[in-house]
Amino acid sequence: MLFSALSLHSCTLEEYNPGAFTKEALATSIDGYETLINQCYFAMERFYYGSADWMSLTEGDTDLWTYKANESTSYTQWFWFFAGTSPNTTYTNNWWNGTYDGVGACNEAIALGDKPPYTTEEERNAKIAEARFLRAVYYFNAVEQFGAVTMLTEPITAETLTYSPTRTDPMTIYQEVILPDLRFASEWLPTGTHATTTTPTKKAALGFLAKACLQTYEYGSTEYLQEALDTAKRLITDCETGGGKYNTYMYPSYSEVFKESNNWENKEALWKHRWYAGADGHGSSNGNYKLNRNDEYFLCNINKFGAREDNQETRLTWEGSITGIFMPTQHLLSLYVQKDGTLDPRFHESFTTEWNANKNYTWDESAVHMYDKEETVIGKALNKGDLAIKFIMPQDIDYATEKQKEHISDYLLIDYHHVYSDDNNNVNMNYAYTNVTGNYKNDGTNENQFRYYYPSLNKHNSSNYYVANASKQRNGNLNATFIMRMAEVYLIAAEADIYLNGGANAAGYINKVRERAGANPLTGSITVRDILDERGRELCGEYCRFYDLKRTGMFKNSEYLENTHPDLAQFFHPNYALRPISTTFTATITNGSEYQNPGY
């Protein structure tokens, strides 16, 4: 096959080595073989979970998120299905290359697994299981992002090198690689402890096996749904009986899941990854400050208000100060409104809605007029540490009281209704002023200055940094990212139960998650839409949503997005359920045009 020799870029071991001497020699010692195993992680660490823009590939272009302030002229490939312009066909280059860099490394390690002198087959298979688990994860993401891809299961040799690769359909890759690899991994990987990080364990393999089996439903298959349910139930049973077999756990309260003190040894995470950086070196091929980047993606533009500024001191706090790119849609926020009109407790646990001043500030005439304050606010002062910005939801207990103060408070008060339209299911781009002055009118023609401030997801916030260069504000986030956690397993079981049993037990599974969060239990018949909504509430910002919409058929046409994210629906085409294969790659093969996905 062509991939590794021509288009990939492993930084240490070259994938194509005609003599096959270096890797063969390495594999004859345990230390050398484990060097090959370590190479399997390289692309995962560099391009995937926690790294730049992987969040956008898995959460962007969905019903839950729009670009910051709902602007549709930037990051269009991530949030707007290209916004009606010609598709960018090179932005996926890193992940395409990274996939086959990772797959190639895994294939080498698997093929050479009989060489190192391990004393037991259990030790040998545990190491091979790491490579097979990672290969499954690479391919899982590859088929969900790109559809049919070239299936490679053996190391490349001069004899197998080709300039006209063929593509294998997703179900075949699931059947012949992803599912067998995950079954093998679930049998041979160690149980690990809560401190185990990056290296997959049995519960990670079982979790991904349940996830992958369920995802095959996207392709019209029901063959693996029972395995999805049975595997999920194995983890659930273990979790509910003390975790003795697989070390599974679910925190008794939702607030504990993302508490920073629980991050490194998070008990609920089935698989997590974190980086190391210190004076003695670092564990990132991107540099000692480009570690877990998720903390940079979700904060609204609080620095647009004069009582805030982006500075090094604030960047090192849990609150943070880097303006992100993800803005929750009206649909996402509406998911937290319960049938009785109250807010699901997860809303205020998951989203920050208040920010204090990080500098002294005095309201001037310009700001007063811009933010629709009364003239009496001119000259009012905010000291560092005072409440500076507050976003209020109509369901908040203090909403009515706060609403009365919106034009006179000495802090910037943002009413949900100023930012979001429930009637149109989108973001208000214009605003009608109450206090009409100068160019600020009450006819709704002014730019909405409030749309820059919105609830900001805080699941990935951090105060745990390695300061690489303070003067350049280069800080490496040392917190782990959770790739999958136990709560998702209950939702996998619920969805599989609907497909298999009409949902007879689905309420029991979904309500375990809701009751833990303090939300009202769901009653009556549970539907796939109920599961999809619950996954939005529980798992938003956790690498799931793009795949969720594909699996549940919401990308077959624009109808679902028209009802949940109409601003995005206008740019949707079913072809965009698959990403473009990088034309940097297709330009190097002889069948590039036919290899490309439709619509690109």
From TrEMBL:
Superkingdom of origin: Bacteria
Annotated source species: Bacteroides xylanisolvens
Q: Which residues form the RagB/SusD domain?
A: 267-600
Q: Where in the cell is it found?
A: Cell outer membrane
**Family membership:** Belongs to the SusD family.
Query: Where is the major localization of this protein?
Result: membrane
Taking every annotated instance into account, which residue ranges of this chain make up the domain SusD-like N-terminal?
63-213
Output this protein's name. Answer: Starch-binding associating with outer membrane
> What InterPro entries does the annotation carry?
SusD-like_N (IPR033985), SusD_RagB_dom (IPR012944), TPR-like_helical_dom_sf (IPR011990)
Keywords tagged on the record: Cell outer membrane, Membrane, Signal
Assigned GO CC terms = cell outer membrane
